[in-house]
C-alpha cells in the first residue's frame, strides 16, 4: 500500500472512530480465535486499540475446548446432552478452574502485554451473574448448568468508567439461598450482559463467516438480517443447527434494546476492526 492508500484508509475510518467513542461494545470470544496463538494475538490487539481510542469494550469468553482437554487429562469423559455440557460437581470444579483460573488470566495477561488495561472477573465476582439450575421440562438432569436470572453490571460499569477492559468468564452464583455455582453458556451470558450495560453493539466471534444461505458455500454469506425475518429463515432451514442458538442470543440482545448485533468470523485476523471501522463490515448483522 502506498502512503495515499494508508491515508485513505484512515480518513474512511475516522467517522467510525467518532461514532463509537464512549459507547459500550460487548464481544463474545471463543472458538478457533481462542486456540490459534496468532488469531488470539490479533483479537487482543483489536480490543486494545478499541479501548485506547475510548470505546468501552467488555470481553466475555468461553473455553469449551480447554475444558475438554482438562477433563481428558484427569481421565473424565466430556458428556453433552442436547448440546449442553453435562456438568456434575467434579466437572463444575474443572470448569471453574479452567475458565476463571487459567483462561481468564491468560487473556488478561495478553491484553496487558499489548498495552491494554484489563481486569479479570467471573460471574461470581460482586454477584455479577445469578442463575438457577436449567430445567428444560424434558426430565433430563443437566447437572450444574444454569440459566442467567439476574445481571448486576455495577462492577463492569465502574471498571469501564476507569478505562479498564473487563474480561468475564461465565460462571455464575446461584440465586438467593442457593450456594451452588453454575456453568453458563457464554453466548447467552454475553447477550444478557450486553442488555444490562445498554451496549451499542453485541458481537459474537465464531468459526464460520456468518449466516450462509448454503452452508457449503462460503460466498453465500447473508450480510444483513432483519429480525422479523428470522422465524421464516429457521423454518426454511437457512438458519439451522448450531447457528440457531447464536441467532437466539442476538434476538435476546435486540429484544433488550441493543441496536446492533453481529456474528463474525473470528478466524479472520482483525475481523473486529474491519467490522467496527469500515463500511464493508464482515459477517452477518442482525438488526
Indicate the topology.
Elements: H1 3-20, E1 24-29, H2 32-35, H3 37-52, E2 56-61, H4 64-73, E3 80-81, E4 84-85, H5 89-113, E5 118-122, E6 129-133, E7 146-151, H6 154-161, E8 165-169, E9 171-174, E10 181-183, H7 186-196, E11 201-206, E12 224-225, H8 230-235, H9 243-255, E13 260-265, H10 271-277, E14 284-286
Parallel strand pairs: 1-2, 1-11, 2-8, 5-8, 6-9, 11-13, 12-14
Antiparallel strand pairs: 3-4, 6-7, 9-10, 13-14
Helix pairs in contact: 4-5, 7-9
In short:
Strands 5-8-2-1-11-13-14-12 form an 8-stranded mixed β-sheet, with helices on both faces. Strands 7-6-9-10 form a 4-stranded mixed β-sheet. Strands 3-4 form a two-stranded antiparallel ribbon. It has 10 helices and 14 strands.
What does this structure look like?
It is a single chain. This protein starts with a helix and ends with a strand. It has helices spanning 3-20, 32-35, 37-52, 64-73, 89-113, 154-161, 186-196, 230-235, 243-255, 271-277, and strands spanning 24-29, 56-61, 80-81, 84-85, 118-122, 129-133, 146-151, 165-169, 171-174, 181-183, 201-206, 224-225, 260-265, 284-286. The longest helix has 25 residues, at 89-113. It contains ten helices and 14 strands. The chain is globular and about 60 Å long. The strands form three sheets. The chain has an eight-stranded mixed β-sheet, sandwiched between helices. The protein has a four-stranded mixed β-sheet with strand order 7-6-9-10. The mean pLDDT is 92. The protein is α/β, with parallel strands linked by helices.
Amino acid at each position: 500500500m502506498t502512503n495515499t492508500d494508508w491515508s485513505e484508509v484512515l480518513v474512511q475510518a475516522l467517522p467510525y472512530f467518532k461514532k463509537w467513542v464512549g459507547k459500550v461494545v460487548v464481544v463474545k470470544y471463543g472458538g478457533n480465535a481462542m486456540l490459534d496463538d496468532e488469531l488470539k494475538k490479533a483479537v487482543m490487539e483489536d480490543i486494545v486499540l478499541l479501548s485506547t481510542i475510548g470505546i468501552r469494550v467488555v470481553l466475555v469468553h468461553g473455553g469449551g475446548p480447554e475444558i475438554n482437554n482438562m477433563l481428558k487429562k484427569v481421565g473424565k469423559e466430556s458428556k453433552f446432552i442436547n448440546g449442553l455440557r453435562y456438568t456434575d460437581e467434579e466437572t463444575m470444579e474443572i470448569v471453574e478452574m479452567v475458565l476463571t483460573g487459567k483462561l481468564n488470566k491468560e487473556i488478561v495477561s495478553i491484553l496487558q502485554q499489548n498495552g491494554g488495561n484489563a481486569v479479570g472477573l467471573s460471574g461470581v465476582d460482586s454477584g455479577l451473574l445469578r442463575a438457577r439450575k436449567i430445567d428444560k421440562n424434558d426430565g433430563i438432569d443437566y447437572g450444574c448448568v444454569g440459566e442467567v436470572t439476574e445481571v448486576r453490571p455495577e462492577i463492569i460499569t465502574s471498571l469501564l468508567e476507569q478505562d479498564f477492559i473487563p474480561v468475564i468468564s461465565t460462571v455464575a452464583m446461584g440465586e438467593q439461598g442457593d450456594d451452588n455455582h453454575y456453568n453458563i453458556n457464554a453466548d447467552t451470558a454475553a447477550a444478557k450482559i450486553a442488555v444490562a450495560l445498554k451496549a451499542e453493539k453485541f458481537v459474537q466471534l465464531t468459526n464460520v463467516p456468518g449466516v450462509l444461505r448454503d452452508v457449503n458455500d462460503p460466498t453465500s454469506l447473508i450480510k444483513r438480517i432483519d429480525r422479523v425475518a428470522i422465524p421464516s429463515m429457521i423454518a426454511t432451514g437457512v438458519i439451522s443447527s448450531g447457528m440457531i442458538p447464536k441467532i437466539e442470543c442476538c434476538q435476546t440482545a435486540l429484544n433488550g434494546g441493543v441496536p446492533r448485533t453481529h456474528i463474525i468470523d473470528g478466524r479472520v485476523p482483525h475481523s473486529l476492526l474491519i467490522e467496527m471501522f469500515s463500511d464493508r463490515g464482515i459477517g452477518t448483522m442482525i438488526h
